[in-house]
């Protein structure tokens, strides 16, 4: 499974979805669709706000409160995923399962639009997999390698998530440029049609 990276185009897709449909609470737990992307509801910014509030808490109380906050946040995420994950395998081709799509091992990009309570997140569609995870030890099927991070003691430790493929950021920039070009062409077409429309309107009025 890959470590997720942020994608601005997917963030834009989430924003567009909310602009068109709102938060879509009536579809909570189901898969959301926008353009060629699939999305889902996720935890909002509430835990970030709680962390900000906790900065004013006395240090002697902070340690215990942090443990409880982390525990509750972890439980919420686990229950959210368990609720969304498919219960029968192999997964039927073409089926999607909301927030459970986070567990698909070959995805590594995500983008969200958030408020305090809820987020709308989108990911790219992935090739069919009969199971979300691939069998084997962590990172054993990585085309790259496992991520490394620094633990609390300052030692470098190998994680259990794959590093995204090389060049993914260049791919993202190319996608953004392509979208900008499409938008520019649309603007040019709109500008070129406008004078013709005005002339036709004047002609119609003067008939």
How would you summarize what this structure contains?
The protein has about 210 residues and is α+β, with helices and mostly antiparallel strands.
Helix percentage: 40-55%
Quickly count the domains.
3
Low-confidence stretches are: 182-200
Q: What is the H/E order?
A: EHEEHHEEEEH
- Write down the overall mean pLDDT: 80
Care to count the β-strands?
7
List the total number of helices.
Answer: 4
Gap from first CA to last CA? 68 Å
Strand order of the largest sheet: 1-4-5-3-2
Largest sheet: 5 strands, mixed
Shape: globular
Radius of gyration, CA atoms, in whole angstroms:
23 Å
Which structural class do the helices and strands define? Answer: alpha+beta
InterPro entries: CAP_sf
Transmembrane segments: 188-205
Keywords: Membrane, Transmembrane, Transmembrane helix
Task: Label this structure with key terms.
207 residues; alpha+beta; 3 domains; globular; CAP_sf; membrane; transmembrane helix; transmembrane
Please characterize this protein's 3D structure.
- Keywords: Membrane, Transmembrane, Transmembrane helix.
- InterPro entries: CAP_sf.
- With 207 residues, the protein is an alpha+beta fold.
- The protein has three domains: 1-133, no CATH class; 136-166, no CATH class; 168-207.
- Helix content is 43%, strand content 18%.
- It contains four helices and seven strands; from the N terminus they run βαββααββββα.
- The strands form two sheets. Strands 1-4-5-3-2 form a five-stranded mixed beta sheet, sandwiched between helices. A two-stranded antiparallel sheet has the order 6-7.
- It is globular.
- Mean pLDDT is 80; it is low at 182-200.
